[in-house]
Design goal:
about 250 residues, alpha/beta, Alpha/beta knot, 2 domains, seven-stranded parallel β-sheet, six-stranded mixed β-sheet, 7 helices, about 25% strand, elongated
Length: about 250
């Protein structure tokens, strides 16, 4: 069944209005008609099972038959702090992190980040592109929310934000072995929020590690092999799923 997302103001009692680009997709691509069934998500973890009533040029009206919990969200809100990678790697990271259950993603400019967006217009354009990728991945994977891609942060800003969370993990090649990682991941079961901090291609500078440790970030190992930046966060998210999925 086709899936669409709406904001709260588009839901009125038993009727939901779909607007924007989804109207053209429903009308001209999917060629759906009154009587067809769709799922509309409120972006807060609730799925509305609906029947289309009207298909107009600028709006699709659907009536709600039933409402259920989406059931696809992790019990802990995981924020991925991703050191900016080169080329289009960020797009892959966003797509796969959303599929794996991340709550939000923060692109971070670190000391060894090759990519730096000095132009605000270029940055804004990138954020729009990244958010569209998040929405597409959320639809494909049946998410109950569309994870937000936050504006770029400096490393200090990212550490300060991560410090507000119940637990933050820092994959680092000099951290103790995988047994320590398992113990750290067990702590997630008592958390509501958690952060994952991933360095860029060149890794962390020593000063960045020191700052993270000063703010109680937990250094962990991801195994005996050194992972690329586009692999590390996804590997850790997969481990987290193992501990949190019921």
């Amino acid at each position: 069944m086709h899936r669409f997302y709406v904001s709260k103001d588009q839901i009125q009692e038993n009727n939901i209005s779909i607007t924007g680009q989804d109207v053209n997709h429903i009308k001209n691509v999917l060629r759906m008609k009154p009587g067809d069934e769709i799922v509309i998500c409120d972006g807060q973890g609730k799925d509305c099972y609906c029947i289309i009533n009207r298909v107009c040029d600028d709006v699709v009206i659907a009536s709600v038959n039933s409402i259920r919990d989406t059931g696809t969200e992790l019990p802990v809100k995981i924020t991925l702090f991703q050191g900016l990678p080169k080329s289009d790697k960020m797009e892959l990271i966003i797509q796969k992190a959303v599929e794996l259950g991340v709550y939000e993603i923060v692109p971070v400019v670190m000391a060894r980040s090759v990519v730096k967006y000095a132009d605000e217009k270029k940055e804004a354009k990138k954020l729009l592109r990244w958010q569209a990728i998040s929405e597409s991945a959320a639809k494909q994977s049946g998410r109950g929310i569309i994870p937000k891609i936050l504006p770029l942060m400096t490393y200090k800003e990212a550490i300060a934000y991560a410090n507000e969370m119940d637990l933050s993990l820092l994959p680092y090649e000099n951290a103790k072995g995988i047994a320590g990682t398992k113990e750290s991941l067990k702590q997630l079961q008592d958390c509501k929020t958690a952060g994952i901090i991933i360095g860029p291609e060149g890794g962390y500078e020593s000063s960045e590690i020191e700052l993270a440790l000063e703010h109680n970030m937990l250094p962990i190992s991801l195994g005996k092999r050194i992972l690329r930046t586009e692999t590390a966060g996804l590997a850790l998210l997969s481990m987290i799923m193992l501990y949190l999925e019921e």
